[in-house]
């Protein structure tokens, strides 16, 4: 392929993070799942008890409710120039060692990176502010890690499946 063809076909890497915005449901699900696992471990028969089946029904109902309360956030990597602008706009503070090590303002950069890299859902400024405000610190960190990894981790080259190569030896020679 020519360089022009490769450039025309270039696509920026993307990744998706799924967040359930109803953390109360997650906690309830974990409790019920532990209870069901404990019942099954203590059971003397392979047939599920009525109590086990009721726990399973409650878990499945919670899973459906959690799915309805889940948002899928898609990120796309920035190209070099927007990345450099983002870093310049979030310059490191001289009195903060962490900023000096990272090369940017660690208090502002990650939120700016999330905002700049997020491509869906499409939110206006107020909606994006409200969305970020309802997240836990852990949820925000999941978003920030995804955006950071897209923009700063090593780019993958061609991917080769060892499992597929074992099944189809020599197919990568073409």
Runs with pLDDT <50, length 5+? Answer: none
Number of helices: 9
For the termini, the CA-CA separation is: 15 Å
The structural class is: mainly alpha
How much of the residues is beta strand, in percent? 5-15%
Which quaternary structure do these chains form? single chain
Q: SSE order, as H and E?
A: HEHHEHHHEHHH
- Indicate the overall shape: extended
State the helical fraction: 55-70%
Overall tally of domains: 2
Strand line-up in the sheet with most strands: 1-2-3
Q: What is the tally of beta strands?
A: 3
Largest sheet: 3 strands, antiparallel
Mean pLDDT: 90
- Rg on CA atoms, Å: 23 Å
Briefly characterize the structure.
This protein has about 170 residues and is mainly alpha-helical. It folds into two domains: about 20-70; about 75-150, no CATH class.
Describe the protein.
- By secondary structure, the chain is mainly alpha-helical.
- The chain has two domains: 19-70; 75-151, no CATH class.
- It contains nine helices and three strands.
- A three-stranded antiparallel beta sheet has the order 1-2-3.
- Helix 2 packs antiparallel against helix 3 (50-68) and helix 6 packs across helix 8 (137-152).
- The longest helix is centred in the N-terminal third of the chain and has 20 residues, at 23-42.
- The model has no long low-confidence stretch (mean pLDDT 90).
């Amino acid at each position: 392929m020519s360089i022009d063809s490769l450039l025309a076909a270039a696509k920026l890497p993307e990744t998706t993070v799924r967040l359930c915005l109803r953390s109360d449901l997650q906690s309830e699900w974990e409790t019920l799942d532990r209870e069901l696992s404990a019942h099954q471990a203590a059971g003397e028969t392979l047939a599920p008890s009525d109590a086990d089946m009721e726990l399973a029904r409650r878990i499945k109902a919670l899973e459906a409710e959690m799915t309805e309360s889940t948002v899928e956030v898609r990120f796309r990597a920035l190209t070099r120039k927007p990345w450099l602008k983002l870093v310049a706009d979030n310059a490191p503070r001289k009195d903060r060692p962490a900023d000096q090590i990272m090369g940017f303002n660690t208090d502002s950069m990650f939120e700016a990176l999330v905002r700049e890299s997020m491509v869906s859902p499409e939110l206006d400024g107020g909606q994006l502010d409200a969305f970020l405000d309802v997240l836990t610190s852990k949820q925000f960190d999941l978003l920030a890690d995804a955006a950071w990894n897209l923009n700063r981790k090593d780019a993958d080259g061609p991917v080769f499946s060892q499992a597929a190569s074992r099944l189809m030896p020599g197919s990568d020679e073409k």
